[in-house]
């Protein structure tokens, strides 16, 4: 008889955000009149910007004509999008990345989930703790994690790098050799950042140790301070040790349109095999390209009108972040992040657990956030709020949170 | 140092259609004036039908408003699409499939490539020969194939089921036990079909032997004859042994819009673990749903206007198929398929290889098709032409082919 991939049996509970959705739905069923404010999942709320809507309509019209119809596109993405990304996101920042090193996809989550496939089964994976669950779960599915160790609060074979108040949420190098190191800055969930000097040290470390850094740059558009790298390729030597993922979800509201990209420099060679070629083969075999109309929408993100409109959209969310952080501090909480990122990481009241605080917020004031422990053991005692709500809801949520404190 | 997934080193050559594209591009560079007709890759040419364009515009407008904006959707797809599929593609045909057994995705190719992940490493894979390369290559990448055996013309550990003129292109049961059996009917590349009685025997075989049939139904919309199953779930007992993939690419021209779905019945249980739950977990972890606007386009496929327009579109392609088949026969070729499928499978002239015939067609009359051997050893001596061109090009291509024969 056929067998299943038994690594799946090592997965813990169900996916964090599904669990939250279930809890919220259960509450709604019991309290159908409740006005719940969701600052939990990192989903945006502002409509797609007019310049992008216009590009979408235009592309849809093309698809309805014999001359403008686009069937299968290049699996790697259309040249028009790859080159504008290379120019605007890399070359304009002094990063040596070419258009043919950029692979367009239907989202950073998919790429981050799939990238581990091109690496050997025996690679040791290191992740920050707390961490976006996808890095861990996809390696569990692939059989790199070993069993879950309840005492450790993590998987046997995964190296966890705690990000705590003590280290300013910037991890120390892993305690033992790791082959694949997942880093995400501006960080999800803590909202904190790594400066260029520190990131350079990671690049040097990876080059010295023969490690690959898988760098999740999904939140780079929220960086407001100088000296914080927007891309790992701003660091010297990153072309021989780093892969980077970008999303259009957070900078342009594409959570429901689905677009992202991955940069694999051609200098990444392992015993004569190019990682770029491997990913190219994977993309060509298991993927068929992002929709033409969505790639045209992506192109509009870089138009002068698109840029201006998205700058406003990000400013809107960052004002929410400020409101959350200041509001929390006024309510007596300690809060991190929210300056270079849309996430605020708050410390829950002494003696309370993350999920306990989740239930309290939901039950008492109908505000939904994300329990820090859902992101890993070191997230216990913390709680994530996102700036992606509407202004009205954000203000109202903070008013409510202030009440539970008093 | 990190290591790569060495299974990739077992992959043969590059992806078939990339190789063809390279050959065609090289020819074009040498003969920039050449008028090349492509009946090679299975890409459609008719524009998206008006009812679908209308649905797309409407959905795009929604995305531009605060009330109509859709962010992250359910990873499994929107209920509106899952239920219309369950009703129209299954329940209307007497198949017992529910909406929550349908997983929407960005295309059948992705699902077919990814489905093997939920199965154990030790499963034996059986495929038809010739075969759509994705079934094989994704299992090579996963380490189930062993090395390529040049003498056998296939991989050591893969069970090949020849589809030949002698067996009417319907395979016999595998010569040794296989756990995962990939079947595609109407078949790509042969264009031939399996009747319901024969498919029922496969379902019985799978249930008896503890095998899973992965059924690729991408071409079902082209079935024109009675007694040919549109879904494997028309067969009794399929709920305990079959997974089915559908594409919107061929029935509605979505090759550039990207939409498909996979059906995993809840009755598929392996030692207490539900394959449905496993795929649900995979979808939730590595995927973020198809774009809202594309799912709305998919819904329009089932509207009365959409159905009427697509019926015409399919009739158009099937008239091309008839023209190809009759034209080939007039030119003295033996040709199969083309009645319940958009593919015609022709026998190349005695003593000539598939690639030789490819080069001859390209060089002498500038017509591009797909060499049968590119789909597997038993495809040697055959050649695939597709009905997805324009009428004008199809007629012209056949006129040209007639010339090389005389």
CATH fold name of the largest domain in chain A: Aspartate Aminotransferase, domain 2
What ranges of chain A have pLDDT less than 50 throughout 5 or more consecutive residues? none
**Beginning-to-end CA distance, first to last residue of chain A:** 61 Å
Order of helices and strands of chain A: HEHHEHEHEEEEHEEHEEEHHHEEHEEEH
Which CATH class of the largest domain in chain A is shown?
Answer: Alpha Beta
Q: How many separate domains of chain A?
A: 2
Structural class by SSE content of chain A: alpha/beta
Largest interface: A-B, 83 and 83 residues
Q: Give the amount of beta strand of chain A, in percent.
A: 5-15%
Give the overall pLDDT of chain A as a whole number: 96
Oligomer: homodimer
CATH architecture annotation of the largest domain in chain A? 3-Layer(aba) Sandwich
Main sheet overview of chain A: 7 strands, mixed
**Helical segment count of chain A:** 12
Rg from alpha-carbon coordinates of chain A: 21 Å
